[in-house]
Amino acid sequence: xxxxxxxxSLVIATHNAGKLKEIxxxxxxxxxxxxxxxxxxxxxxxxxxxxxxxxxxxxARASAQxxxxxxxxxxxxxxxxxxxxxxxxxxxxxxxxxxFEGKPGRDWYMAMGKVEGLLCEQGPETPRxxxxxxxxxxxxxxxxxxxxxxxxxxxxxxPPRGKLGFGYDPVFVPTGREVTFAELxxxxxxxxxxxxxxxxxxxADQFS
Length: 208
Ligand code: ITT
What we know:
The protein is an alpha/beta fold.
């Protein structure tokens, strides 16, 4: 049986404000006292893994060791079928700019445009199927870990639409809907997203 988080605090080992907001909302009903990596001043480890699982474990372990508190990390990304699954684990890297709004930062419009540009190079008939993956990793300070994987399928649209969510949400239309993740009510995204899928597995294992 998997070890339980228990009644104490849990560090959310992310420096991404959009993820932090979604994870806190998903954990809310379970009465967990969430602390953020940012508020504890925890460093961001280098994501040197080649899979979502490896990178989620790197982040969760680094946080648990630095804080001494059980930690939850999320590694996630967008995979495009016609691009052989790219950007995948490099999803955040495709947004990195040396100078963005006066400082180093992430430019999501540029990243979405890069995906669109590569699809356009392949011609108008290119399938636009894509999926988001999310791996949630729990790590305890003594080294024990647990991993939960989630996915949501959909297709890419252009131009971007909607102001909600974060990252690549404005170009992702989940299967069976006509609106993008950035146009969906956050509660609805929390029901169907890759993060929600991974969370359902975590909740079944940890809180049932
Ligand atoms: P942390 O490592 O600090 O958690 P990060 O942003 O660097 O934050 P990742 O390495 O996991 O996180 O990168 C995943 C990227 O995938 C993220 O920055 C988003 O751009 C994108 N992404 C993940 N989930 C998403 C979602 O629900 N909607 C839109 N984009 C998402």
